[in-house]
Amino acid sequence: MSALTLYLPQDSVVVAMGADAVADALQVAAATRGVALELRRTSSRGLFWLEPLLEVEVAGVRHGLAAVQAADADSVLTALLAAGAPMHPKAIGPVAEIPQLKRQQRQIFSRAGLTRPVSLDDYQAHGGGRGLQRARTLSAAAVVEEVLQSGLRGRGGAAFPAGIKWRTVQQAQSASKYVVCNADEGDSGTFADRMVMEGDPLLLIEGMKIAALAVGATQGYIYVRSEYPQAVATLRAAIAAAEAAGWLGEDASGQTFHLEVRVGAGAYICGEETAMLESIEGKRGTVRAKPPIPALAGLFGQPTLVHNVLSFAAVPGILADGAATYQAMGMGRSRGTLPFQLAGNVRFGGLYELAFGPTLHELVNELGGGTRSGRPVKAAQVGGPLGAWVPLSDFDLPLDYEAFAARQAMLGHGGVVVADDSVNLGQMARFAMAFCAEESCGKCTPCRIGSTRGVEVIDRILHKQDTHANVALLHDLCDTLLHGSLCALGGMTPYPVQSALRHFPQDFGLTPEEAQP
Ligand SMILES: Cc1cc2nc3c(=O)[nH]c(=O)nc-3n(C[C@H](O)[C@H](O)[C@H](O)COP(=O)(O)O)c2cc1C
Ligand code: SF4
Question: Which InterPro entries does its entry note (predicted)?
């Protein structure tokens, strides 16, 4: 009996595209031919336009077959058994040579598409575990210093220097401390956190374990949104595997770190760190006033290190290769890489991990191939539902926190949603206000009441009612939201609204002069 090993991703996005049916059909086709098929279900490479992407190794090189469906199983197996390299209409050659993959600088996603998510053997064979190994040889203060020197900034949105947060938690005096991973991932068009959790969960566990050793925490939580059931299941399986291997629980050196998954109930505001802590404590997810900051009084009032999935996932690489290697990538004060998530109306949508610095034009038009509809790109919303709409005239802006902030925009979690010229940004501004009204936790007046009034004011502008007075009122309202809100939900809703008004006044039925504050 001949034998064949194939690789097929099992991330939820690929399963939604029919990967399980492809797997079943391949098994049936192999059995019919008397072929012993080993089908390894890996993570996804994030090249979504090619999924389900089936791979076969030929002379040490992975070759791909793109957009494989169950109906292709017979012809694919015939081709694979007949030739060395796959000769099939869906064959696309060596996967590593795909321009959109070759151009990337994958650090966090270095194992994407290569390994089976919960396999410790695969993880270690592809470089996993080295960060923790090195961290164990250093003092806690030296680990914190390494994170500080790397220049890593939080990837959840605010881009606060990670090392400073670590130092604050480490120096806090308390009998118990916590490490909490914010995996609520509520931003539109974002999926990188989910890809880590479903595809390389041991990386997140390793990052959290290093953090726990450094700051002196014995308990950790991963707060995952309820819409991510596969991430929850994979994380739980990975935690069990890590416990069995002695990475979690009480380890050989006598250090204890327990990790648990907590599932959110589905509210955007539960991604805000203090609302998330309330939710983990079993309360309703409303925002806490700061100070005190969570680093000093967080979960159950104890010092707590809160980070996004991508922040923790960057840590093993920083420890393994040294802060200087990470620091060498990027531009300005934006060091290292950011996994950009390219979504919306774009031809080659997916995950692009790049060092900070390339332009939006390179990302959207060169790598992303422009719109999927074939119509001209009009704008991209960068950084989630509270991010600004960036017009084509700003597509030469480098992807860097400060460069975006200087243009009243933000990178946030790296989500980029592309819109073509058929999208009306007046309607999108209305949607931003309606989103804020829907998701407001209700604690402060500008956001709770202002967002509802904002929808009404935009409606009046769109219906040409008393335009001049209503434009002035909208700017005034945005100013109140920006400066008077307790958290960034209300505080940033003006970004998509005012950027739409500034760059696309015609979509509100206004001239550029009429749209001015
Ligand atoms: C309304 C709102 C929603 C947020 N949602 C998320 C989220 O889903 N995931 C996340 O990591 N951070 C989110 N944040 C940012 C967190 O409050 C916090 O800054 C972050 O988790 C800290 O991690 P970092 O240092 O790794 O960025 C949100 C903030 C606000 C105001
Ligand atoms: S800005 Fe909105 S979400 Fe934030 S605290 Fe105020 S009411 Fe709650």
Answer: NADH-UbQ_OxRdtase_51kDa_CS, Nuo51_FMN-bd, Nuo51_FMN-bd_sf, Nuop51_4Fe4S-bd, Nuop51_4Fe4S-bd_sf
